[in-house]
Each structure stands twice: as C-alpha cells, then as structure tokens.
Give the backbone structure.
Amino acid sequence: MKKLCVLTLGILTICGCASQRLANVEKNAIIDDYISTEVLQSKSTVSAFRLDSWAALSEQYIILRSSPSKPYLVKLKHACDDLNHSQTLLVTSQLANSLNTGIDYVYTPENSAFRCRISDIYPLSTTQHRTLIQAVSPRQSTASDAPSSVTDGQSEITPSAVAS
C-alpha cells in the first residue's frame, strides 16, 4: 500500500510538471499570432551576420542573435526535432557573412545529416525578443550567452538557452 501511494504521488508530480510545458503546436500558434500582431516583416537576407547565440522556441522556430542587440526570429521550412535537446547549433551560410532564406540552413551535430532550411527571417527588437521567449517558455530563467566560433561558412554556438 505504501509503495502504491509513493508511486501514485510520483506519477502525479511528473504529470503536473509536464502539463505546464507547451506543446510545439501551441508554441507555433503563439509565435504565428505574435508575428501577425506585431506585424513583423520577413527579410530575405541579413548582411554582416555572425552567430553570437541562439534559442530554440519550438521545433520550427529559433532565435538567432548576431549580437546582444540584434536578435532574429527564424522560421524553418519544416520541424527540426533535435533543436530542443541540443546544446550546439550549426549554421551553414552559402554567402559569406550573411544569412539568407531558402539557401541557408541550421542543424545539430547530433544529427548532421538532417538539415533544416531557413524559410523566414524576422528582425526583432530587444523587447520583442524577451516577450517572445517569455510567451513560449514562461518558466525559463535567463541564461548567459556563449561566444561562437566560425569556420568555413559555418557558425557554431553553445548553449541553446538565450533569454536576455
């Protein structure tokens, strides 16, 4: 009987914690609504781009920063499953020092064969950046940013949590 009570309490605790997280479908809906509400304009190219830090918002949306004051909301053509679990993101640019829709892509070292093409890039203000992260990750605390290294048109950054 005592084991049953402990087991039941454990299951309820796990279920309670899990239910406070948003599903990717819910996150995508929040982000799509935010894009519409804020009337964000997609850019096809970001010049002078060098990856500084990143954050996975969902399996289809990430935030890439080229500096602490230059965040970009990036939509991927399809869901990229590894983003939420990886500590490192690789960005491959076809044109040096720029980020382009349709030709550039991101991927994780754990699954380098599966590359996620960039479909939209939305410049964000620092306030929009913070608001968007809080909207999809209400329990996420701020994390420090790590510097990136760039080689052969690829940028690599770790860790994935960026909230400032």
User: Anything to note?
Assistant: Residues 89 and 119 are 17 Å apart (CA to CA).
